[in-house]
Design a protein that fits this description.
mainly alpha; 2 domains
């Protein structure tokens, strides 16, 4: 099993797919990495030589921000917005959608499970 950027990538999948298991590398970056190193698209991870794995590891460390560093930077950006007290920061602080989505309905992913209002009873006839 190849270990790149602190992540065990699956060995029986194609290199393009398995590189995506690293946080911060998507389809475009994976294709770019394989192109720079001359690795064919249909090559599987278990077919890579130790030298190729080392080259991939060095390229990612040198040119891409991935895993812990990327997560830390994103957390710091959100914390900065919250400390500034700007609109986006307030939305993050309250746990509401940040990018202008409606909240009257359909914000359950961000707001959490619906909580019933106490004391409100149905009127029976």
């Amino acid at each position: 099993m190849a270990r790149i950027a602190g992540v065990n990538i699956p060995t029986n999948k194609r290199v393009l797919i398995s590189l995506r298991y690293i946080y911060g590398i998507g389809p475009q970056n994976a294709k770019e990495i394989c192109g720079k190193l001359g690795i064919p698209d249909d090559r599987r991870v278990n077919q890579l030589t130790d030298d190729e794995v080392l080259k991939i590891r060095e390229l990612i460390d040198r040119e891409y921000q991935v895993e812990g560093d990327l997560r830390r930077e994103q957390a710091m950006n959100i914390k900065r917005l919250m400390d500034l007290g700007c609109y986006r920061g307030l939305r993050h602080r309250k746990g509401l959608p940040v990018r202008g989505q409606r909240t009257h309905t359909n914000a359950r992913t961000r707001k959490g499970k619906a909580v019933p209002i106490a004391g409100k009873k149905k009127v029976t006839k």
